[in-house]
Specification:
The chain has 121 residues and is an alpha+beta fold. The N and C termini lie far apart (52 Å).
């Protein structure tokens, strides 16, 4: 019969292995795919809020955005040309340039995170 201490050690090991596996996958997957598919283009309509742009990309492509709702300011609006056909990579680069958002793509999913700034020492 396993003692309580042995169960805690097994549980801790399982948690650590899981955490390291997730971190490894995340690090690998973040650089796994670029936004280079020439079919990934859209034409923006009048709604240039961040959520409006996400919705338009999802409607016009097979891409889906994944983000934490608390990380996104729904009123955040961008001054973007709406008569232009945008490559997804170009559009997301522009959004990232003027906001704190960072995008990474894995297959047909685009992860949206807040950019972390490295502290100067």
């Amino acid at each position: 019969m396993l003692s309580s201490l042995n169960l805690k050690v097994i549980l801790l090991r399982t948690i650590l292995i899981t955490v390291f596996s997730v971190l490894f996958f995340y690090t690998y997957a973040e650089s796994a795919q670029e936004f280079t598919n020439p079919e990934d283009t859209i034409s923006l309509s009048f709604d240039t809020t961040v959520l409006g742009i996400f919705e338009q990309v999802e409607r016009q492509t097979n891409l889906k955005f994944a983000y934490n709702v608390s990380d996104i300011d729904p009123t955040l609006e961008f001054d973007l040309e709406i008569e232009k056909t945008w490559m997804i990579s170009e559009l997301l680069d522009e959004i990232s340039r003027v906001s704190e958002l960072k995008f990474s793509r894995i297959d047909n999913y685009i992860s949206v995170r807040i950019r972390e700034y490295k502290k100067k020492r």
